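Incident log entry.

Two folding requests arrived from the same account within the same minute. Monitoring flagged them as a possible duplicate submission, but the sequences differ. Recording both here for audit purposes.

Request one:
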Amino acid sequence: MRKILVTEWVSLDGFTAGANGEMDWITAGEDNGEYQNEVVTQADTLLLGRTTYESFAGAWPQRAKDPNTDPGERAFAQRLCDMRKVVISQSLPTVEWENSTLLREIDPAEILKLKQEPGKDIAIYGSASIVRALTDLGLIDEYQLTVHPVALGSGKALFGDIQRRANLKLIKNKVLPSGVVRLYYEYVDKYPTM
């Protein structure tokens, strides 16, 4: 069965964005390009919410075609364009980015079906509301959290309104010279009865 992997940038106090949606506290880090390439090499499907989808669709297709874009970034952009994208949104009328399909709601049976399909893993970038919903359903296999050495005090909490405790096990970590720490957690209580 394919795994669902979450990759999130978070503050030390667990926020994915500040109180006004600001993300100026994020530093890409010394190994960010290498790390992002690992994620898209391990996965062949992206699971995205509306906000992340609109951000990605507004940037990556153009970067994939722009000859002035760094070759490594252009290759990464093309990889994102080639990947299957499953977008969960009640408000988007359509999805235009190539290889994208739209789901109107999180249906646990649909997500399990997606996990059971052949292929590589499924990656979630951002999309905190989807992460919270799938955490409650026990459908996420691994959380890859890039923790930045800043405390925001308030903002958009990654796990702010989950309905059940998520027991996680640290399986790997990496400390970067900047003080950014990448933590890899496995969800211990996967696939509860729905």
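Request two (distinct sequence, not a duplicate):
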Amino acid sequence: MSPVRHIATAALLSALSMSGPAAAQDAAPPAPAEVSPPADWDMVRDPRKKMVAAYVSLDSGVSVILRCSDGVYDALVSGLPEAPRRDTRVLRISYDDHFHAETWNVATVRSTALSALPAPFARKLREGGKVSIVVPDGAGPGRNLRHDLELPRSSTAVDETLTACNRPLVDARDSALPDLDEYGQSPSVTWARPPRPAYPFPAKYTAGFAMLSCMALPDGRLDACLVESEFPVDGGFGKQALKSTDDARLQSSDGAPVSPRLVVFRTNFMMR
């Protein structure tokens, strides 16, 4: 990496320390970060923000960033065409020439996308190799834009970000993700009683979201739930969403008992 690109990406990481839905942006400028020498992936560590990040910047202008910030894990791809919407966008991603549509969140910088399932995404990237990202209509209406990325293998950097957020380096749940639709949901189950989380109090932000994964039990209860992503990271939205799973219930769309499976769902928060 050239010195200019290295400095530019470090600046990008500082700017993205506040990235997320525009409605939730309201914070002081970030403190200077400590930039480490290049390793497998490059690293940025900021002890004052309890942040550690691994990143790769490519000549195409695309950067991939994996970050743990004060216990919250996220993954970002920057350098994309600006998203037409301010909340979510669909990207088609391939790790092995089989594309899978995923819904990503749109950052305040609308050319940056945040993964709804950042830890599984990071685990996919640990071995490096070819990753392709297709942006629907990214080259104009009806014209998709494809980025073919050749990522270096990470021997320590990606693992450091996962470990900093107590995320496993290997998770059996990841094998179930291809069975979910682009919104991370299983098409054969619906809510019998949807989660109804309380708004965090005292409220620090007027809007936010949390993405959870859970194991569905035959009686529709949710078990072993995890907060996959949330924003703002200090808004308390993940904690409230997690509490709401105790009373939530799923049902099979055909009326049969729910077969044990992974379910992933997003909860949006907005202050009235």
